[in-house]
Amino acid sequence: MLVTVEIPDDLSQHADPAREALEAFAIASYRSGALTPKQTRLLLGISTRYEFDGFLKQHEVFEHAYGVAEYEQDLAGLDKAS
Fold it and tell me: 40 and 26 in contact (C-beta within 8 Å)?
């Protein structure tokens, strides 16, 4: 799906205003719970959870940090894959 957003002229002077807008949308949606971590990661084109965690840290998003339950779920998934 293609979404068009009109950006004010002063913001269009940034290096990559489209990416900035996408990242702002993704972060806000993730923080509000509208997007899951996986949905947010895919929207941003980030291939791994590790890279996504780095993105969150870089943008100072700590509300939904990787927790014990997610870790245990990942371990269970690895056990099934073996």
Answer: yes
CB 20 within 8 A of CB 14: yes
Instruction: Flag whether 1 is in a domain.
Output: no
DSSP per residue over 45-62, as a string? T---HHHHHHHHHHTT--
Residue 28 in any domain: the answer is yes
- In the block, tokens 């940090």 appear at 65
Identify whether 24 is part of a domain: yes
> Sign of the C-alpha dihedral, residues 13, 19, 25, 30?
negative
φ and ψ at 32, to 5 degrees? -80, -15
pTM of the model: 0.70
What is the token pair recorded at 78?
Answer: 């690895």
In tens, the pLDDT along 13-47 reads: 889 998 999 999 999 999 998 999 999 999 999 99
Task: List the structure tokens of 9.
Answer: 């002229």
